[in-house]
Amino acid sequence: MYETLRHFADSYGLAIMVLVFLALCLWPFRPGAQSRNQTAAQSIFRDNTDGE
């Protein structure tokens, strides 16, 4: 059982992890994400009273 899991992790598991990593890194740069990214970036300034 250990050898089977080790072989999977060494071959297919590594490939799957690389693909998931690349997908998560590239997700914010997809064409339809610009408006959501701008909304998220500006959300910290919403309702800002400058400490008053």
List the defining traits of the structure above.
52 residues, mainly alpha, 65% helix
Task: Describe, in plain words, how this protein is organized in 3D.
This protein has 52 residues and is mainly alpha-helical. It has two helices and no strands. The mean pLDDT is 87.
Annotate the secondary structure layout.
Layout lengths: L1 H25 L7 H9 L10
**Main beta sheet: strand number and arrangement?**
none
Give the fraction of residues assigned to helices: 55-70%
- Average of the residue pLDDT scores: 87
The beta-strand count equals: 0
Q: What does the radius of gyration come to?
A: 20 Å
In short:
This protein has helices at 2-26, 34-42.
